[in-house]
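[recover] target loaded
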């Protein structure tokens, strides 16, 4: 059902999973709820995922503006990149460049040995999630299937220049 990123860099980067109306009133609750979903999807211990997420959140401001937060890291435990997009039930305060509360969280996890690919994917994803039209569509959808449709490779060429 969900497209995983193929190691062939000519392939489009695909969204691995989505989470609509993620509950949580603060960063820790959001991270715990995301950890549960991510660890189940990629088969890595929840404690490892949570620890990596906390470390990633402390490296820099995670809020890239317009209500979007991006968490990214590299892991020894995966073979291909993993991307999850979560729309929060209620916005939360995080360290953001525009001080706007966050209601969309994007997580990118890449294999440790793919540093350059990780940076390319991160740049493309952050550009994509600065698009006002895309953000408006994601915020107006009411279900995960709607989010997947908006983010599908047929609708979005994430790897486009």
């Amino acid at each position: 059902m969900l497209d995983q990123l193929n190691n062939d860099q000519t392939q489009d980067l695909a969204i691995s999973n989505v989470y609509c109306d993620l509950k949580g009133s603060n960063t820790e609750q959001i991270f715990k709820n995301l950890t549960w979903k991510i660890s189940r999807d990629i088969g890595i211990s929840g404690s490892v995922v949570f620890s990596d997420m906390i470390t990633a959140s402390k490296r820099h401001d995670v809020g890239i503006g317009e209500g979007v937060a991006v968490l990214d890291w590299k892991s020894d435990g995966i073979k291909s990149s993993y991307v999850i997009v979560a729309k929060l039930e209620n916005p939360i305060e995080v360290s953001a460049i525009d001080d706007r509360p966050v209601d969309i969280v994007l997580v990118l996890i890449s294999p440790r040995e793919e540093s350059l690919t990780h940076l390319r994917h991160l740049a493309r994803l952050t550009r994509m999630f600065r698009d006002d039209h895309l953000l408006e569509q994601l915020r107006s959808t009411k279900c995960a299937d709607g989010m997947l449709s908006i983010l599908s490779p047929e609708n979005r060429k994430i790897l486009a220049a």
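[recover] notes: The first strand starts at residue 17 and ends at 22.
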